[in-house]
Amino acid sequence: MKPPAKMSKPTSLFVIFFSLFVMSEAVFEDQVGKFDWRQQYVGKTLFAHFDSHSQSSKKLFLATDKNIFASFNSRTGDLFWRHVDKVGPEGTIDILLLHGQDALMVVGGGRLLRSWDTNMGGLNWEAVLDTGSFQAACFVAIQDTVKHVAVLKKAVISLHYLTNGHQKWVENLPDSDTVQYQAVYSGGEEEVYVLGVVPNSHLTIIAYSLEDGEIIKQRSVEAPWLSSVESSCVVIGQGVLMCVDPATLALYTLPIQAEEAPQFNQILLQSLDLEVSLGFQPVLVSSQPHPARSPISEFFLQLGPDHHVLLQLNADGYTIAALRDFQPAFLVSFATTGEKTVAAVMTPKNETACDINLFSADSGRRLLDTTVIFPLDLNGGKPFKLYVHAFLKKDDSVGYRVLVQTQDHALTFIQQPGRVVWTREEALADVVTMEMVDLPLTGTQAELEGEFGKKAAIQDGLFPMVLKRLSSQVILLQVWLAHLWKLFYEARQPHGQVKNEVTIETLSRDEFNLQKMMVMVTASGKLFGIDSKSGSILWKHYLENVQPNAVFKLIVQRTTAHFPHPPQCTLLIKDKDTGLASLHVFNPIFGRKSHIAPPALPRPILQSLLLPVIDQDYAKVLLLVDDQYKVTAFPSTKNVLQQLQEMASSIFFYLIRSDQGNLSGFRLRKDLSTERIWEVVLPTEVQKIVAVNGKRPNEHVHSQGRVMGDRSVLYKYLNPNLLAVVTESTDAHPERAFVGVFLVDGVTGRIIHEAVQRKARGPVHFVHSENWVVYEYWNTKSRRNEFSVLELFEGTELYNSTVFSSLDRPHLPQVLQQTYIFPSPITTMEATLTEKGITSRHLLVGLPSGAILSLPKMFLDPRRPEVVTEHSREENLIPYAPEMPIRTEWFINYNQTVARVKGIYTAPSGLESTCLLRFCAGCSPMMEVVAYGLDIYQTRVYPSKQFDVLKDDYDYVLISSVLLALFFATMISKRLAQVKLLNRAWR
Amino acid sequence: MASVPRSFLLLSIIPTILILCADFACCNTGRKTGDGLDTDFSGFSVPLEHSFQVDDVSRFRMRGALQLRGGRETSVSLSQSQLSEEDRNTLKVGEEVAAVDGLYKIRVPRVSLTDRQTERQMDGYLTAFVRACSLVESHLSDVITLHTDVSGYLIGVSIVTIPGACRGTEVEDEVDLEAFNTTLTIIAPTNAPQPETALFIERMDIEHEKRGKPQEQKSFFAKYWMYIVPLVLFLMMSGAQDQSGGGAANGGGR
Fold it and tell me: So which residues are the signal peptide here (chain B) (predicted)?
């Protein structure tokens, strides 16, 4: 991208200020992807299947915990298509079965049976299943062709046609209140077997006729050691049930199809010379390559975390032979191609890599030249699951590709001989919080900055300063020459070979501070550093032992502005249930863990707050309040503690206990204990607190007031300590339900404003910024979404114009409020933020459709007049209209929809500040917007148009050639005129 | 933290009772008091307590009694006693609380204005504070606001002094610190506005009517007949000439 050139156009400025209506969010077709990027994710893989329909197929099918069914290109890792189902248990994928071109899925805990066309991703059919929780499903084949699918539920088994989903028959299971039916098996015969268990008593086997669902036979087998079929039994060979019992350390076999009263046959593991690791629950792994045929008679028995044994059931159906012992081996998996079944085994090689080898399943012999190396990422998780795609090569030997899923939800696809084809970081499907950090200056830039630093000027005299200046100029010249040489060198390279990759080494701040580092925290505990310009992942760090219910808070303690001190971020990880927390301190540019030891936090943490106090190393001080209202400071150097003691009486903080409806304020004491100074209690029997929002600390408000039509000024009530508390009524009746909005001063606990939105309920989304609060709710009476805006004004006179203090502001502000109808539900809302706050504000609204709407704040202005007057026209107020429009050109992400938007992050770019220095009149600030949810979308928005920046398609060549031509033309014509004058003079 | 030793509370009440001269502040929600309805609710009183200690430990003592009247017309009045000599000393003469940036705290128990049954069941207090120095400098003129929620529960209390700043001015006259000059208000939540559809439609209708009358749409022909007729006439004339000329030429050709 060409850097946006800067140009002073003071005349056009006024035009633009008065034509703010016209927004410039729309992009031209050739600008697509130039300033924005999108990455689509699917989440943690639950089921994965390779398309084995044809040999050359490139498809890979995944079903994930985010209720997504997706197809990937296995050569590139790109998404072919994906289907995003409902959030929550209604859309969970219970099972994914693949046969030929059909992918069968049971959705929503046994609610629906769906068949997808794997080629195009279209839905073949959908069948509603009977109620009851889902247990198991399998394909049922008849004479080598798969025609049906059997679905086993808690009390019912049903058989469906594969072609249209129609139910062939449905049967109630006998004694379903005592017997837990857990497995269904079909070996290609005329019968479907259902296996149920009465824990620690007996096993029930029922054979159903395929034709009409009649019970052919019903057997009950004594099995006092068996508690669950699902976890400890598999079917192998010619219908032999193989179970493992960790208590007696024995394997049990039972022919399912046996006619007479069958008995379990016990084989002690000791007799096979096998030993189970202490406290480990042994696991059986089997494989049924084709639903029309019985499973293979080989199976894996896992005896410990890294110990597997390949066993074979002999032809007699009773005895077992050990084929091969794999120790150490992390993961094993079977794969079948044609008639050959192979076993893939992952064994550790060294610290940084694992080996994957293929073994013939029927003999346990290692297949030659099948070693693949899986590189272990030290900043990633351990391997978790192996999906193998085997195929026959031309010489009839078995080749394979392997998909490795690691604990951090990453997927790595590896091809022989050990080339990583692609990696997908699926942890990014669940980003919890993020921050943007400025990139560091390069060495030379830092040198220049340092030259003009205050310290330097005081220390050095005049002469050293001159020398310094000269030396830095020389360095700059050197860098420039090196840059030129690089350009020249690259130009000589054939096109396409020039690598334009961003690496951590080449990272540096650009002229306008457009490129930043996005630090993303995901729910799985993996941290990412992403380049905001290209979206490439520059670093990642997996935090192990993060609880699944952890809450994260990311704090930037030191920005990049304090060279040579490295920037520092702190992640507060808190267990939601116990409240126990830990800190992870790292460098946001490189992702490395900092050497600074965070304090130990033995007590549950209630609140964390970042103070504007900085220590001698320019790190902001983080205060952590524990459940005994004791405060821990980080960093807690002597300097910091001293500062805290001095400031203690002016450090206030608040705590919210939403379960008790309690808001209370505290003041710090000199000994870092606290004192409760105010308390507001919202009775929980009436309403419950759903959200509390303060203002962003890095928010700047440029203008103190608004100039009204009669040239007087209406001053804004700009209280930085103001909290917006939103409550919902406990009474859910549509007539009596309400949403409460409380504006509370966080220092004094004074309720500044208290409003009730009647006949309304949540979910409430709200934004609190400057002097306004915008909230959105559901109107239960009119059944629509509505937006309401509250603005606070001090009036036409300021109480104390120099400084705001919550303690000295006796008069309550004037509150103006207006409500509008919004024609769409919303999923998330955020306000734009620029460095100096000059620009007109916009609201960024994430819609369920995946669009992100940039709604000008002008439309949400409680001063919009109902009747247009001279004054309101002077003030540029839009006349009131009850409905808020949604204009398609306000969609900042055009067709790049973001599924399930969870959060929107805006970061100001440096453009506003730089232009502030140059032309005080105005500038075209820009900000980076990142929307995250299932997908991540990054773009730039210009809320006040890009009026002082040249367009990126600006024709430099034309302008400069015209200029040059004009220049020469004037030169020549001047010369000619001179000659002419001379000639005339001679005449 | 906020618990008060019972014995201490008793002791502190005794001197306040002895002082007969009571200051009185009264307010209601803006409606007229003394309506007949008010007599239905005899009202009830809750203690207003305050604390101003040097050592940051809150020891609440009785300041006065809030007379609350619930029902349709919520009103509140406060009867409070003068500050005792000792208290004045603590607050000002000793200049302890004010000097060390101490806080003057008040609290009221959580009560419901409408539902008298549940009043005693709720425990806990609502607390607010103001800087002690500003209270001294404002000569004990404070504004106490009680906030209720939709169903009449007290949810918060706030206190501010007018003026609110601490400028460090000495309060010379002892008498200024004897009696509180309290303004008392009770605030219930306001109803947030609904979208004003009815008004908008009405306005649109009016505008429509206004616009509708003068702009009676004439047809295109009715508007511009004076231009069209001569043009057509001219075309017809010239056309006729051409035709006759053409016809003649054709005829000549044959």
Answer: 1-29
